[in-house]
Amino acid sequence: MDIQLTSLHWVYLAFIAFILGLLVKRRDTTLVCVAGIFTLGIIATESLNGSVSGIFNGFIYATKELIGTIFIISIIVAMSRVLIITGINETMVKPLTGFLRTPTLAFWGIGLIMAVTSLFFWPSPAVALIGAVLLPVAIRVGLPALGAAIAMNLFGHGIALSGDYIIQGAPKLTADAAGLPVSGVMEASVPLVIVMGLVTTVVAFWMMRRDMKRGKWNDGLVEGGAGSALGTTAPTVILPERVKKTLAILIPVLFAIDVIAMFRFDLQGGDATALIGGTAVLILIAVTMIAHRNKGLEETTSYLIEGFQFGFRVFGPVIPIAAFFYLGDSAFKDLFGDGLPAGSHGIVNDLGVALANAVPMNGAVASVTLSVTGAITGLDGSGFSGISLVGSIANMFSTAIGGGAATLTALGQVAAIWVGGGTLIPWALIPAAAICGVSPFELARRNLKPVLIGMAVTTVVAMFLV
Q1: Minimal CA–CA distance to 391: which of 220, 184, 233?
Q2: Where are its TM segments located (predicted)?
Q3: Helix or strand (DSSP H, E) at 328
Q4: How far apart are CA 463 and CA 404, in angstroms?
């Protein structure tokens, strides 16, 4: 079916190209996205009032779509904060320290613990949750501080965040932009996350051991040495040891019950997120009331405020960007009415059909393009701000090649988050680097080759899956 492309399609495509160019230059794209919404509004409505209103309404639309993700992350951060302050986090991971007896065990042990913890708490809070306890143990058995930072970073901000199978913030964003169910993108991402994770971590570990043997290892310590930032996570509320141990057992059990319930009742997407979020709120309230007693009412609010400040600080730049990219699909009609030609299925779908008719596209070309695009969108150091774009492009390319939408979407998501979510961009590496007292630039340099090699292998695997 032929679709007549109009100025709306070409302007949307031009803004995407401009946004990609800015991301390569590591410039902010918020202003350009707002300009894109305004320009599309002018063309569609031929009304200054309609286009100006469309900017605000676009923000509202994007916020409605993202609000569940913002809330779950905010609540998890709030809960993590009270666990750190009370020292419950230390009690939770303390039994695991007995297994970290060699540098090798410490590297893989820290990594695996970080990955599991990050699935429930997200990587940045997880770094604080486990770093204070595991880092001193790792250094004591001979694992360098930078090696511990690499493990926490690759397993947390790489493997766990790129899949995001429990909180489901990342697959929700990409799936919505691609017009796919969240479960489809998650299923398609499993082999890609496994391949990317295995290749990257094995290469990083091998390079670390090789350079240590050759005497070429630079730990990249900053002033204060390894773990200099740990003082910020020291408990300030004293709980009886028996109470801490009880809560340290009960909290993982509650989340384990949530996971069982997800499988038992087939909870996915928003339902699964709501279950985790509700559990986290109850844990936050219970621990706060136990720890602060007569001040518990006020402290509960303080922790929630802290969490929501974090959530909106992280997603503040995402909202205007998402607002623009949602115009490529469902949001356009809601904001600007019937401005597209008859028979149109949305700007992105129309471009996909036109591409299929004009360009000899295949799975290999599409896979390489999605990997590169995902990596470019991650250059802003967020990882999340560009994955709506990745979803839109995956939708467009899958239309052109006649399938593979979920795999291409998942591939772009993996690329964007591994680059921008905190494994290559120095300013996105700060949580892991700070907790280990190492330079984020040295950590980024150490991650570069393993991540690029992992991405190349993952892209080849995706070619066979599309």
Answers
A1: 184
A2: 6-24, 31-60, 66-86, 98-120, 126-143, 188-208, 247-266, 272-291, 303-327, 415-436, 448-465
A3: none
A4: 10
Distance CA 237, CA 199 (A): 42
Model confidence, pTM: 0.70
- Let me know the angle formed at the C-alpha of 122 by 138 and 448, rounded to the nearest 5 degrees: 65
The two counts, helices (H) then strands (E), for the chain are 21, 0
What digits encode the pLDDT tens for the residues 101-140?
A: 899 999 999 999 999 988 887 787 778 667 767 887 888 8
Q: Quick count: other Cβ atoms within 10 Å of Cβ 348?
A: 28
The CA distance from 10 to 86, in Å, is 55
Alpha-carbon span 319 to 175, nearest angstrom: 16
Quick check: helix, strand or coil at residue 75? Answer: helix
Q: How far apart are CA 128 and CA 143, in angstroms?
A: 19
**Confidence check: pLDDT of 272 > 90:** no
Half-sphere exposure of 302 (CA within 13 A, CB side): 11
Residue ranges covered by each domain of the chain: 7-465
Would you mind telling me the total number of residues written for the chain in this entry? 466
What is the C-alpha to C-alpha distance for residues 368 and 366, in angstroms, rounded to an integer? 6
**Contact yes or no for 64/270 (Cβ under 8 A):** no
Give the end-to-end CA distance of the chain in Å, rounded to a whole number: 23
3-state secondary structure 187-208: HHHHHHHHHHHHHHHHHHHHHH
Q: Identity (one letter) of the amino acid at 456?
A: A
